[in-house]
Design a protein that fits this description.
This protein has 8 helices and 10 strands. With 242 residues, it is an alpha/beta fold. A 6-stranded mixed β-sheet has the order 6-7-8-3-9-10, with helices on both faces. Strands 2-1-4-5 form a 4-stranded antiparallel β-sheet, with helices on one face. Helix 7 crosses helix 8. The structure holds adenosine-5'-triphosphate (ATP). The site of adenosine-5'-triphosphate has 11 residues, from helix 1. Adenosine-5'-triphosphate (ATP) binds next to helix 1. One of its GO terms (molecular function) is ATP hydrolysis activity.
Length: 242
């Protein structure tokens, strides 16, 4: 099957002050792929996702999403981004939050209503739609943030630890949805610490100390390192912290 690059990073680096957080990242993510970023805490996963989302700008190299050099404001409508810390309005209800973001993404009328209903259902919050977000638990806020990232059916989904604080049953249904979205053409980049989630990704990028130390399918990574699990493969590639 011929597939095109959806996200392309060329020699990307990011420094904060004198500190190098990402260095020499070259990577292509295909259309319709679920690509997982795996790495220890502080290895640079969030920074990389923010560069792809166009929320932050690379200090070196180039980032392209759907052929456009990032950052680019007009890409907002083509990207669904779920940050690690929830960007929600606590005093507004879930519905009001969703209405706000739907308007920002240019969703109107019947489509807006339909998408709010569909995405809130997916994350299991339909019964809580009219409650103010300040009364939500941490896991409920994560779920609402995920629903918002999915609202406008973006061709590119960037999810930073989307299932933290979400129970295993709901986590399964969210993964099934991500797989179904990918089958219908959505490109998904997801950061995770959860090894069984890593196994569900089509390909993985292992990050350590701001560098991409390996890229491949979960199976090829296990085979190449003679490992039974992704965790073991990661350690054999040199992913151990410290
Ligand atoms: N705005 C910033 N200014 C200075 N340093 C930063 C900034 N943002 C990130 N960093 C540093 O960059 C490094 C990578 O952080 P990042 O959040 O990308 O890691 P991560 O792999 O996503 O970690 P975690 O899994 O804990 O979320 C860390 O050392 C962090 O302190």
């Amino acid at each position: 099957m011929t597939r095109t690059d959806c996200i392309r990073l060329e020699s990307v680096g990011r420094n904060f002050g004198g500190k190098t957080v990402l260095e020499g990242i070259t990577l292509a993510v295909n259309e319709s792929e679920i690509f997982g970023l795996l790495g220890p805490s502080g290895s640079g996963k969030t920074t990389l996702v923010k560069l792809i989302a166009g929320i932050d700008e690379a200090s070196a190299g180039d980032v392209y999403v759907l052929g456009e050099r990032m950052p680019k404001l007009a890409q907002l409508r083509r990207i669904g981004y779920m940050a690690q810390s929830d960007a929600l309005y606590a005093e507004l209800t879930a519905r009001e939050n969703m209405e706000f973001f739907a308007a920002l993404y240019g969703l109107a009328g019947g489509r807006r209503k339909k998408r709010i209903g569909e995405t809130i259902e997916l994350v299991g919050l339909t019964a809580h739609l009219n409650r103010p977000v300040r009364s939500y638990s941490g896991g409920m806020k994560r779920r609402l943030s995920l629903a918002i990232a999915l609202l406008h059916e973006p061709p590119v989904l960037l999810l930073d630890e989307p299932t933290v604080g979400i129970d295993p049953v709901l986590r399964q249904s969210i993964w099934r949805e991500l797989e179904s979205l990918a089958r219908s053409g959505t490109t998904v980049v997801v950061t995770t610490h959860v090894m069984d989630e890593a196994d569900r990704c089509h390909r993985l990028g292992l990050i350590r100390d701001g560098r991409l130390i390996a890229v491949g399918t979960p199976e090829s990574m296990k085979r190449e390192t003679g490992s039974a699990t992704i965790e073991q493969a990661f350690l054999r590639y040199g992913g151990a912290a410290g």
